[in-house]
Design goal:
The structure holds two protein chains of two kinds. Chain A is mostly helical. Chain A is 70% helix and 1% strand. Chain A has one domain (80-323): MetI-like fold. Chain B is mainly α. Chain B is globular, with a radius of gyration of 23 Å. The chains are: A mainly alpha, B mainly alpha.
Chain lengths: 325, 289
Amino acid sequence: MSVATSAPATTVTPPIRRRRLRKPGSRVGYAFILPFFAVFGAFAVYPWLDTAWISLHDTRLSTYNHSNWVGLANYTDLFTNSFFWHAFANTLTIGIIATVPQLCMALGIAHLLNYKVRGRTFFRVAMLMPYATSLAAATVIFLELFDKNLGLVNWGLHLVHLPELDWQGSKWPAQIAVSAIVTWRWTGYNALIYLAGMQAIDYSLYEAAVVDGASRWAQFRHVTLPGLRPTILFTIVVSTIGAAQLFGEPLLYHNGKADGGTQGQYQTLGLLMYQQGWVNDRLGLASATAWTMFVIIVVAVLVNVGLTRRRDRKAAAPVKVGASA
Amino acid sequence: MTAISVLRGVGKSSKAGRQMDATWVTYLLLGIVLIVSVFPLYYTIVMASHTNAEMAASTPPLLPNGSIFGNLKKALDLAPLNKGLFNSLIVSSCVTIGTVAFSTLAGFAFAKLSFRGAGMLLAFCVATMMVPMQMGVIPLYMLMSKWGMADHISAVILPTLVTAFGVFFMRQYISSAVPDELIDAGYMDGAGPFRVFISIVVPAVRPAMAVLGMLTFLMSWNDFFWPIIVLSSQNPTVQVSFQSLATGYAPQQSIVMAGTLYGTVPVLIVFALLGRQIVGGIMQGAVKG
């Protein structure tokens, strides 16, 4: 090993050559991280803490600098408010509809791309076009595709003799449509992440599986999936964090109104926070919602990590039998 | 969380011999994926060139026509799309330069310098990726108003100038791509840490900086939440001008579609040109166990 990692900077043994190895002292590291943490502290960490402080006050835009201390009243307000629980339920259902099929499809697509495919760069770039399209543009486009009268989706349903749906007015179709926008934009991206993970799997495991007479499905099930487990966990965590703060899609899906549809059928927590703060001028309540969202995300991430770990432990034994020669 | 390491050299180690041959089923399925990915974008061109009445016909049109240009002109009258594009270009360029510079500096420190609290600070950075963007906007808005920067694009640039993701990304790359021996050789030659950073580290990690730059530019270009809070429809980024276009009173959907297309095409062209690099970048940044 090199001197750098094994010896502290102050007790460097003099090298045999004439030149002395002048290792930087321990302080210089701070100089390198200072620019980042100065900006990060001022425009991220400080606002987060200030939001916590505001959430304990009855804050309005006009009385921002001298608002009344209300203790936890904003939080009790929030938790006894049906709008909050409604938005919480919607965030949960849209989150599930938008991520579970998405990640499953991404896994399938990654598997397809892992074959020896001609024009693979072309396929990969084309699949990422939705990711390059902004959420604002994508939502405006999908709003038109899902339009009750003018949209191509209802035309297609009509074509195959299925009932046409009110993709904006009724609850589940609207939630599915909002989820479709998220799914369209992110599936290709996640497929590439999975593909990278697949290409890192030791190929000898597949050879061993083939020797064992494993079918392609068995190889996928017993070699690919276990090898991808950390990657899958990573995408689940990232998707959960994204889904919990869903905001732009439901806002633009109701033409920029923050109520999440005529009956709030796709009102999410992120949108509710915006409505409380910028429409109803209740910045204290909105701050309480923001911090609650953070706690929800932390809990959701911990649950995901915990579930994956437990499944790992359960699955560990049979997988090893299946994969090893 | 489990140990995450940057996957290196995905493109280089092409496993020509080890991949299974694609069958026609593979191509069929990939073709479907391709159509679903690209068709909505194509159909936007169609929607941008037909009136509501034409779209409601029993057989909707599948080809665009020349009326798209007239609709685009109307869209430009409704929303300041050109100003939005210009503002977005400035915002995304500044954010990209700032993020790449600050992240590389901090990433080098976390990867190759030892100082008290380094592990804790890095863990803190990673943990902050769980913070929802909703948690900062109210104080930020107040801060920007107090500084007289509300409705100015510097109010969008400043808070997004750094990302925790960037620091983590650069740290992972620098740890694995720059050997300690190379850095020690620099110290042996009498260079200080800043000289080592400029002359050894930066040239070695230029590919990662490019990848981070492309991803950051795209993220910043598509950012929506903070810009619509702090900017008005008179001085928008392109995303904010989409919002005013969609929520305004366009007499025909085709006008909204034409405007959306106009604001989206520049980034799609750049994306198509750099597509291979961006794909490689996303795959490099991917995690494995």
